[in-house]
Amino acid sequence: MGKIKQGILGGFSGKVAGVVGSSWKGIAVMKALPLSVANPRTAGQVAQRGKFSNVVAFAGLILSGVIKPLWDRFASGKSGYNEFISTNINLFDAVLPSPEADLIISKGKMAATPIDSLSGAAGQNLVTMDWTDDSGSGFKLADDETYIVYFNANTGEIWGVDYPAIRSAETLDFAFNENLSSGDVIHAYLAFRRADGTVVSNTSYATYVVA
């Protein structure tokens, strides 16, 4: 309990309402009490921290191969990494994004090129992706470079890489460390970047269940 020793305008010691009185080198001083901090572990805050941890872990696996070349040059007021995080965080209630089709690996003024097909066989580690060369429309050029993110929803293996393939190739093979098994669900994302780095595409997505 605080005590006012010299009248209402005098010095005091202890706590009175929202201030604390004390003496410093013989001088009566008052300090405001710090504001109380609410419990930071509400259900919403815990859920948001979980999403953040999940998207950060995912982004770390595709940072050098995809995020930096496709996001850094075009991010506004923040790093490409932070732009990717803020764009996709709400998909990461779990370690893999959901809905998977909503993951954005690239966004730009170049239109997306649809993935025509994915194919791969159990007992092998390769998946083949096919698309149609649609250069000449939507800022697209035949020598635009390919960027791929893919993961196996059953094993949790995730990759994000730039491939030595160009739009006009219309196909590429990508590899997992582990051989595929029947029933594995593969999710794949495709984007393109102008060879000089000045334009990137939007994201296209496809999924495939291994037979």
The name of the CATH superfamily reads Immunoglobulins
Q: Helical proportion?
A: 10-25%
Shape assignment:
elongated
**Low-confidence parts lasting 5 or more residues at pLDDT below 50?**
none
What is the fold-level CATH name, i.e. the topology?
A: Immunoglobulin-like
Give the topology, please.
Layout: E1 3-4, E2 12-16, E3 19-24, E4 27-32, H1 43-71, H2 80-88, E5 115-119, E6 126-131, E7 145-152, E8 158-166, E9 171-175, E10 185-193, E11 204-209
Antiparallel strand pairs: 1-2, 2-3, 3-4, 5-6, 6-9, 7-8, 7-10, 10-11
What does this structure look like?
The structure is a single chain. The chain is α+β, with helices and mostly antiparallel strands. It has one domain: Immunoglobulins (Immunoglobulin-like, Sandwich). Helix content is 18%, strand content 32%. The strands form 3 sheets. The protein has a 4-stranded antiparallel β-sheet, with no helix packed on it. Strands 8-7-10-11 form a 4-stranded antiparallel β-sheet, with helices on one face. A 3-stranded antiparallel β-sheet has the order 5-6-9, with no helix packed on it. The longest helix has 29 residues, at 43-71. The termini are far apart. The model has no long low-confidence stretch (mean pLDDT 89).
